[in-house]
Structure formats: structure tokens, C-alpha cells
Amino acid sequence: MATAAAPDDEVAGRGSGRRSAGTAALALAILLGLLLGFAGGLLAPGLLRPGDGSPEAGFARDMSSHHAQAVEMAILAHEKAADPDVRVLAADIALTQQGQIGVMQTWLKDWGLGPTGREPRMAWMPDAAGAVKNGLMPGMATDAERAELRAATGRDFDALFLKLMLDHHLGGIHMAEGILDLSDDEQVTEMAESMVAGQKKEIELVRSLQGRIGTP
What we know:
Blueprint: H1 8-43, H2 55-80, H3 84-110, H4 143-151, H5 154-182, H6 186-213
Helix pairs in contact: 1-3, 2-3, 2-5, 3-6, 4-5, 5-6
């Protein structure tokens, strides 16, 4: 005897349930990554503590904020992206950058510094006077762009996410290379080198995906 096909709303419900479960799992993994990041920061050696106005403190504060926006967009992409490869990329970005935020925030605590300082954004970079535009650091999406991303669906969402993340990574690499020119703190330079290498690899993947999905 033939069995009746499941109603469309039931099938949709199953897909939505799987997506919700995936998002919950990503959130749990991000929390774990943040905790591991804090632990990694606590274990990192450091004899001299950078001061409140140091390039190291400025980098840790600004890159934490820069990363936080990438994590926000990546979590949204993991939930909404139509292309499975975009969802995988988004999960990788969210997990990696949230873990790095944990490390950098632990540095600040270990240095006896707060998560925010008195200096303006990017003041630690000598050549960054014009890098902050409308309060945003290099590569960061505007409020209007983030709203457009939240409203987009399907291929349009995927294409816009890839564009925004490409710009975001290029800006992040600029900042990470900047601290490499200014700091001889081993843990800071190791982190910055890791950021540059990791985000360059992700840029290659983003451009590959853009070749298949297209651009906005």
C-alpha cells in the first residue's frame, strides 16, 4: 500500500528544526571556544605588561570589537545561508574569531586593563588617522549594510554576506599587520600572524564561492 506523502508544512518544519538545532549547536561551540580562548590567554607567558595606551592594548580592544561584528554576521549566515559551503565557512569564522576574542580579553585582564580605553579607535596605529569612518574600523559593515543582510534571503543573502566578509577580512588583515610592525610581545605577534594567515585562506575561499554564487 502506498504511503501518503508528508504535508509540505511538515517537511518545512523538519528543515526548520534541523536548522535551529544547528544554530544552537554553533552557539554552544562558540561558548566553548570563548572559554578555551580565555584559558589560552591565561596560560600565555608574559613578563612585561603593556600599558593602557600601548599598541598591544589598543589592538586587543579594537580587534575584539572588529571580530565581534564578524561573529554576529557569521552566526546569521550559518542560520540563513542557502549554500551549504557558505554555512560551513560562517561557522568556521564564528568559532575562530570568538575564540580569539576570548584570548584578547584575557590579555587585557592579565595586564590589569579594562576592555575599553580612553584612546579613540585605531589610535595605536600611526597611519590610521583616516582609517575610521563614521566610527567604523577598516572593513566593518555599516548599520545599513547589516540591516540589508538581515533582510536578504537565498542567493542574495549569500552574495551579500560574502562581499561584507571579504571587506571585513581585508580590514582585519590591515589591523593585524599593523600590530606586527609595532609590537615585540610574543603572544600578541603570534596571534596577529595567525589572524593574517587564517583570514587570507578564508579570503581565497570567499572569492572561490563568489565565482560560483556571484556578487551583489
